[in-house]
What does this fold into?
Amino acid sequence: MEMPNLSLALPELLLVLGAMALLMLGAFRKDDATRTVSLLSVALLGFVALMVWGLGGERATTFGGMFVIDGFARFAKVLILAASALAITMSVGWLEREKLSRFEYPLLMLFATLGMMMMVSANDFIALYVGLELQSLSLYVLAAYQRDSVKATEAGLKYFVLGALASGMLLYGASLIYGFAGTTGFTQLSQVFHAAHGQPHAGVIIGVVFVLAGLAFKVGAVPFHMWTPDVYEGSPTPVTAFFSAAPKIAALALLTRVMLGPFGELFAQWQQIVILISIASMVLGAFAAINQTNIKRLMAYSSIGNVGYALIGVAAGSEEGVRGLLIYLAIYLFMTVGTFAVILSMRQKGRLLEGIDDLAGLSRSQPMMALALAIFMFSLAGIPPLAGFFGKFYIFLAAVNGGLFTLAVLGVLTSVVSAYYYLRIVKVMYFDDPVESFDRPVSRALGLIMAGSAAVVVLLTIVPAPLVAGAQEAAKSLFPTG
Amino acid sequence: MVYIAIVFLPLLGAIVAGLFGRWVGDRGAQILTTSLIGVSAMLSVPVFIKIALGGGTAVVPLMHWISSGTFDVSWALKIDTLTAVMLIVVNWVSFMVHVYSIGYMHHDTSIARFQSYLSLFTFFMLMLVTSDNLVQLFFGWEGVGLASYLLIGFWYEKPSANAAAIKAFVVNRVGDFGFALGIFGVYYLFDSVQFDVIFAAGPEKADAVVTFFGTDWHALTIISLLLFVGAMGKSAQLGLHTWLPDAMEGPTPVSALIHAATMVTAGVFMVARMSPLFEYSETALTVVTIVGASTAIFAATVGCVQNDIKRIIAYSTCSQLGYMFFAIGVSAYEAAIFHLMTHAFFKALLFLGAGSVIHAMSDEQDIRRMGGIWRHIKWTYALMLVGSVALAGIPPFAGFYSKHMILEAAYASQGAAGTYAFWMGTLAAFLTAFYSTRLLVLTFHGKPRANEHVMAHVHESPMVMIGPLVVLAVGAVLAGLVAKGWFIGDFREAFWGDAIVVLAGHDTIEAAHHLPGWVGMLGTTVAVAGIGTGVLLYVFAPGVPGLLASLFGPIYRFFLNKWYFDELYGMLFVKPAFALGRGLWKSGDGAVIDGIGPDGVASASRDIARRLGRMQTGYLYHYAFAMLIGVASFVTWFIIRMG
Amino acid sequence: MIPAIMFYVFAALAVAGGVMVISARNPVHSVLFLIMVFFNAAGLFLLLGAEFLAMVLVIVYVGAVAVLFLFVVMMLDINFLKFREGFLQYLPIGALVGLVLLVELVMVFGSWAFAPEIAAGLAAPTPDAQTMNNTEALGRVLYTQYLYLFQAAGVILLVAMIGTILLTLRQRPGVRKQVVADQLARSAKDTLEVRKIPSGGGI
It folds into this structure.
């Protein structure tokens, strides 16, 4: 047994060591260390992101083939790290205002991020499961963070129980696959299925279905989405902001890797399932959101719909599809983080508001905030020329080139329906009579995140080339031969 | 560099005024945006001289944009004669409107925001006219739509302004859908969206067909018609015109800039730009002719019986756009653009003049409550007179040259559609002269019908408002006389260069120069007759119009209610949606459903939404059940599929 | 023969215990049945020759987890009957879904085939029980081949610890706690004062 090549996992090692060091710092400081720990966490995440980027996108495995780095993992990790850093930044002010400062909060986010990085780098079912559980466990705790709020504890409990059920399904599927194929390693599985000429035993297919169900729960796709609205609404808002970005990216990246890697040879078998899930998610995301009056719940349904779009990229099963997916995720990250920055600024007399009606007349009292939210909404609705349009464009392009016309047409139709509720927010902000205005000033961190995300959404419209090129390169690494 | 400056200076102004309005202040925002547009306007003159008069085309690549397989789009500015003309029109009218707004909006509370929107609009419009590919054009196209939405709804405290903004947005989306499909079609057929590539490949694809629904269709006809649907939405042609009159809810300078001079002519510009494709489809050209001519006569009839000063001018705009389109339909693109330019000057003049009247009359817009004010606002009166005469087409004012060229070209094109267009256009010319006269007489002459309180306040507008009017009036007087040689006269071939393509047999402008004399005389004759009728009815026999209205009651009401288009759409699309959705909506959201209703899904969506909402019970075991059923059904599906 | 009989006994008891866990009316009984399931599962492990796993199951699950459950159930005075109200209502659907899944899985497993060519190339074949006992074999791979997973599992436990403390630890003001260091640091000098008191007089 040779020594594993630790240098490949250097970012993860640094993250875990840094998190433990910060844990010590928090535990032994006499006064409240939340702010210090948060800032250091953000710095740590930034540094790790640089390191991930610096490691390059050459495919390599370590730890006995259980851990893989490649262009795909690199791209996804950078997005995840950025999302986590933004989420921690957004939380600090909230923690202090709500008098909920606990230094464990940023640390749990760090550990969740570590779990996500392990997920996207997993090259073995056990590694996948361990990463997934590390992430999930941290998220369960975060969901219930506001432990004196009934809603938050209920959200945490629901998430935990259903998450355990989903994990059970995933494990059951993985054990079936192990039983029929004799291995849990992705590389070996791919070889086994290649040898079977894409016609494996029925038990393997059942296993794949169970694995897919477990992963679909993690991304929040229909019919495994039911937790999403309740958890989004019940959890503390900065936690929801975190949920809506980083874990989605990680789970989708993981799903993509699993489906196109070890199960790539079984494409013909699982493609229809992914198509079904994708359609159901798009339709539900579009229609169920219409009646919502709580903006966090609305964003939950929006995230379900967006996962549906992203899954089109998986269903296409091509390099182009994965590229579309990665572009979509990158753009979605900034749209959703920006939107949540606005939601976190909806504070009136010190109380955080969540109603869509509370936004009425925002264009008058806080024109800049209204403009930013309008940009995010227009972009989420996919109205050209904003970045969200390009995300959808590349996804639909892949679907059409993959011959999935039905999926593309349904995607366009549901995005028309969903445009309705996104634009309703714009309408409320710009055309309704103002209600009482929000507290001023908006905290500097939130303002910066809002402005920065809006700038990115607009800039990606004008210069999408670097993003497209990066996603192209990342997608290529999942299809080594061609 | 000059080109880039022309396009991006307005954007700079918009950004600074919009984002930093609080720091630069209202006055600062006004000065900044106006002077930046001013610089753009000045710069476009040498560009016009160099490109249009000197001949040639300039392409300025900016940066790479989208690249995916063979789909490759870059940001680039393409300046040819067509663009140079549009640059002059857009920049100068915009400049004048900016200056005018300083005076007009001085009571308003959000001046910086207004100036920012105006500049933003100008930027998108410049982007639209300077683009060198369809996607960038679409970018500008959507951008002007957005700016127009923001500006129509500028006074958002008025519910009618909200409704109008949303109506404009939604109706335009219908058109944009056609346009987007047209772009897809172009890409499908030519594998490119670059103008140069498409136009070069146009002749060889002239006979290409596409097959769907089991039938072969002429590809260029399909594409041209789809693009034309987009143009119809933006240029308010019959069927998709309903938003334009409502858009008058916006501030008057906006109506002048967007809904008269520039944005609504974007459709005309786009079709003229795509002339190398339209030329190969007789069917598409015929459709364009018929729609244009029908719009011209429809809007003119409605314009005759409206009472809101801005709506009269709005319907007039609609009618004149119809002229431009049927000119295009008979392949007289040059005449269409010529009319576009002259129209921009005199229609902006009329709108801004109307704004000056409204300003003077303490925000009164109904001409039945005006009258007898010409003594008090002599400048405005004189300038409105110039604008109206130019609109009516009396020589030697600008409208005369362009409108007559269009009518003659229609006559010269021979075909049935051309003949229809000629007679409808002539009739519309008569009505145009008539309603222009009616407007002038009712507004300025006769006994004052406003109350004393208003009359006591009637005052001439400040110089900052009159000044732009004078500049536009000079344009309205001279533009036709000066430019006719280049646009439609002897120098036109050198002037237009490659910007417009007309097939050999289609040159109606040349043919129009050799027509029997009566054709040329007819237009002027009906214009004079129209003015005469107007003077007769409203000055000498003011009782007659009312008599006529009651005598021909049904026809009058038909015109007054705009041919019942809004009611028809209401009945077909909005009512059913309302009936289903009633009780579910709060009253405040009515405006939205009004807009969303046209595609008929609003209420159905809400119903589905409620059902889905009920599924979300909040019970943990329900959720767990849903997951289990989901996984079980997937497995079952596989078992069944594998047999 | 005997191992086969043992297998069916353990397996049947485990399944029966599982049914009782969810159907017992008294939650304490449920936990006790759960313990029974654990014991039978340990028996199955033993039959497979995995004595280490069998012992771990007994020690950890029976000795710690199940006992913890018992404490929780007894200390939290929850009306479990109320929880079960919806049970019968959903029983038919649940049974149907379960049945469908069961039939399908039986159909699939009817033709079980452990990919033969794989068995030879397994990453870590179970070593011969004669040469190396089970515990040692696990130990050999746990810290080498599965180092990554072992460490990651450690991090998960750390997160579980942090989470528990975060969600349950409450620092209330005014609670007196024993601080041993403080107690040890005190010397007689600080606390004791010897005074001479004249007999018959007060202080």
